[in-house]
Amino acid sequence: MDISTFLLLFLLQTPLSSSKALDILQGSSLSVGKPSDNLVSASGEFSAGFFPVGDNAFCFSIWLTISSVPTVVWMANRDDPVERGSAISLSKDGKLILRNSVGNIIWTTKTAALTTSRTSQLQLQLLNTGNLVLHYNSHNGVIWQSFDSPTDTLLPRQTLTSVSSLVSKSRQGDYSSGYYKLSFDNDNVLSLLFQDPTISSLYWPDPSFTDPAENERSRYNNSRAAVLDASGYFWSSDMFEFRATDFPLVLHRRLTLDTDGNLRLYSLQKMNETRDWVVTWQAFSDPCRIHGICGPNSLCSYNHASGRSCNCLPGFKMKDPTDWTYGCIPEFNLSCNQSDESSFVQLAHVEFYDHQDGAGANDCYPKFLLANGRRSPGFEGDLYLRLPKAGLVYNKTTDKEQRLECLYKPVTQQRKTYENQTVKLLLWFATILGGVEVTCIFLVFVFLSRTSKNSDPAAQEYLLTTRFKRFTFSELKRATQGFRELIGQGAGGAVYKGVLLDQRVAAIKRLNDATQGEAEFLAEVNTVGRLNHMNLIEIWGYCAEGKHRLLVYEYMELGSLAKILSSNTLDWEKRFEIAVGTAKGLAYLHEECLEWVLHCDVKPQNILLDSNYQPKIADFGLSKLRNRGEVDGSSFSKMRGTRGYMAPEWVYNLPITSKVDVYSYGVVVLEMVTGNSPSGMHNSEYRGVRKYRRRVTLLREEIMNKIAASRESLIEEIVEPSMDGKYDMATLELLVKVALQCVAEDKDDRPTMKQVVEMLLSHKVD
User: Fold this and answer.
1) Which of 95, 119, 148 is the last residue before a domain boundary?
2) What backbone torsions phi and psi does residue 507 show, to the nearest 5 degrees?
3) Sign (positive/negative) of CA torsion 753, 754, 757, 759?
4) Catalytic residue among 229, 601, 619, 661, which?
5) 556-587, pLDDT tens digit by residue?
6) CATH number of the CATH domain containing 91
7) What is the pTM of this model?
């Protein structure tokens, strides 16, 4: 598909509709301080007018009104706000002009002058897409549109071109232009650029690769266009593409270049009684890889629990206590006096991007500028920072003793003894004083670092688990009435029904393993909390208090699939939809979410159903998170899962991949079809499991050999008797075929969960 065809498909979907227009014949205008002057889209979801950005400061803007807080998606005069008494109007030659209270032109559309015949038909309309359009002749002849000049946000159907870009805000609450920019570079590659008054650098895609092909990009295009659709699919002419984690739901979405330099896709989702933005894709999972994030002479550190933090290098202090982007400045004075002593301080796992002034032996890269520094356990190198000794806090006793002995030679043995005693006394005093000083500096450093972490709005806003609540153990004990109503039990812990203070009914899981550290537990909760899919159970909160580790989930009215299967109340249509929904949830975990997660225990007990029989996968694996590049399964120190549903790899100590979940899914589907559960064989241990696998193998061979000749008789032999012939033959045949592929002994013969979803949905499309 070429770029012109691709963009045309988007533009054809764009309705031209509005509830209010400016007519130049009537001399219409919009004024500051008159809410009634706002333009409103026909859907009522977008508004255009003067948005307050400060005390008596306004910008002509477009914002989405249906989110919990109005979300600005475009601004005309972001760097030059106007005051009360300002207005925007249509000029006689067809331009949109913003004037301040004294009549000076602050902003205007850069369009050619129109003839009188055309200006008489001018209209300014706000479309349902959020696009503000100035046109004539009943929607034809677009003169200007806001979609051509985005600020920090790209809306669905809005095209980023060679002449447009996204520029971040300066900081939270400050809508002026920041230092981060998304645009096409000279190689036709969609890139992120950091540019402040002193330095500029590209930081996305990975700048360590000189060839765009190494980043799976292509420079061989001249269209330079990128576009997002409402389903969460993004496509760029350099062959870069991605899908939202909740793709293909049609929602309000926005792609925003945030103040921290990260490019994020947001989806507007309903949270309780409000609609809030949820991150469904982001360019960086580690924000410390973003340039300029902590400023020069500083180090960026990141973990899932506490988010991003910045710290000055030894010998440096913050330049501006309110803003880390200014970085740090030396606490010492540099001198050209060669007699001044200096020393190197070793900083482990610290790197500064580029700025190399040559390379020496042993991969030594001198730096002439300390910018974009980060500390990462995965980085194997060390940084050696040269600092004047006078400005360092370290034990100098040995140096002083040698220097004193050299400069003051004793005349007599008595004088020498006296001097040595005096020196020792002074050294002891200096050591004690130095110890007190170091302790004070350490306490102040801890206080400042905690304060800076807490006051960093970027770190607070973009920690993706901010919708979670941290419960106390007493709160959850009270909610469950002393953990009285047990609704589930597994190897990981017991699940109880509870009612929270806001009257929400919750499922509260009390984990058995209380030995896990709080920081590790919170890091895992934070990462798992990023998972967001309609077929995954939603986590509402957690408790990490003393030895207690609990998770708070949404409550599922119908309970587990295992419970429903045992009641024989599921009709065929519900069984098929449960199989499809479960496959979608697993495909998301394996291939689409921000982190790669293996469930490792797919079974009917971990598939829960809401009141509409919508399946949601539960217990999707604390401590089962994997890096996408990790394929050998070496991080698994023990077998996981439930016998009967476990893939052969666990038993034979083979590499563990996402195919173990595929195998378990196949067993679950066969159980839904046949009514036979492998879990009923646990009394005979592996003998029963081997028997079940032999049955699976025989069933596979029988179906492949006989399905064409005796389809009906074969189906009657394997289908659960309670179905009583009330099933669709085509979907049943498809489901059995897919399940048998999933339980193949060799993992390479099994499909991926994404392929499973495609196979199942192909029948529905047909």
Assistant:
1) 148
2) -105, 120
3) negative
4) 601
5) 988 899 888 888 788 889 999 999 999 999 99
6) 2.90.10.10
7) 0.53
